[in-house]
Design goal:
This protein is mainly beta and 449 residues long. It contains three helices and 33 strands. Helices cover 6% and strands 47% of the residues. The strands form eight sheets. Strands 1, 25, 26, 29, 30, 31, 32 and 33 form an eight-stranded antiparallel beta sheet that branches. Strands 7-11-18-13-14-15 form a six-stranded antiparallel beta sheet, with no helix packed on it. A six-stranded antiparallel beta sheet has the order 8-9-20-12-17-16, with no helix packed on it.
Length: 449
Amino acid sequence: MGILFSWTNLADAAETNISVDSEALGLGLRALLRPQIADVWRSNAWGTTTINLRLDLGAVKTIGAIALAAPRDSLLPGSSAGVRVTADATVLDGSSAFDTINIGAHNLLLNSENFASVWTVSAATVQPAMATGPFGAMNATGLADTTGNAQHFVQQQVTIAPSTTYVFAVYLKASATPAAALTMRCADNSNVSTCVLDLAAGSATLNTAGMITGTLVENAGGGWWRVSLVFATPSTLTSTTLNLRIQGYSVTFTYVGTGNTQFLIGGAHLERASKASAYIVTAGVPMSLMQFIGVSMAKFGLWGWAGPAFPARYLWFRFTGGAADAYLQLGRLWVGPALITARNAAYGFGSGANDPGGNARAGVTGIRDAVRGRPYRSLTFTCDSMTAAEAAQLEQAAIAVGTTGQVLAARLDSDIAATGCLGVCAKGLGVTRSNFATWRAEFAIEEDL
């Protein structure tokens, strides 16, 4: 958690293409690519339907921050309105098995509960809707082994990135035997990683650690366990195709099956994170958790996300409103790289508002004549302990934006909506070396309207 500063809006680049499937006459989408937030794009009738906005950056670029802004005095999205954001380096529609969805919790697997589709079944029989699942619905899948001497499993093939941490999580429940296993290996049989499970005791034992850096077994109730494997891909991956396997186990991975249901599966989840988020069911495409933009925008007309930087070319925004949302109206879309400092802002930060209007008093009567302007917010905060790398990055950002270029800045990267804004630097950015190891920078941001 630290200061967020994003200085380049990739959405504004000449090579970027933007499209949407709903647009009101005269309030076109290009408004989102202009700094003036009061100049808006508006959809046609919205409500509970989904509006799809797609962005093609023209090439794979590094993204660290995303924001949506609307005029504070306009019709803002309601409290139930939200957006799901999908980012991908290779496809526009999110249909690949690998989607770099880093916008909140997400599940990269396809058909996370339908193991008869997309999943490869080997020496086993998938038995859908066989029992009550971990969330009370009749949707648990049984996995019965065949009577042959083989490895009995279901697996899904996904694409992974090097030097990245993932977590593979599955809900499992014992049936004929408490034994099960989770294994993974790259398509070229490198990076083999295996974990043996005891679904009676709720324990996990690494057989071959490989890429696995941690395990977690959580009691989900009713005999169900959520088993999570955290794994880190090496920088020297020879194959980016990974087989994630849920399989039977009987002393060894290869055994003579009995034809019985060995265990139940309640849902599988793959996420770019070090800990699994709440389970998200998927169908034909990966899915991210709804971001409730209406709740965030109720403060100052801003929703934002910042996190670990990831490479992407395509972004897909799926907006869903509530019954009372007549239309969706936004004034700015921001997608860019970001500096997130390791340390928080120092105490002494402030926020306020300025009015660009004017007033004067009559010389005799003293009556004040005022011409009101639209108030704009001003934010000030300081980072007293930046690293040399952070200072160097900020120096380059300062040259890029000066005092007229638009930036996305926030005192807290975890709460952009309340502590940040889209605006300009009221004074030029600069860094000062405080001591041998740290640097200091002062931020003064004036909000754009």
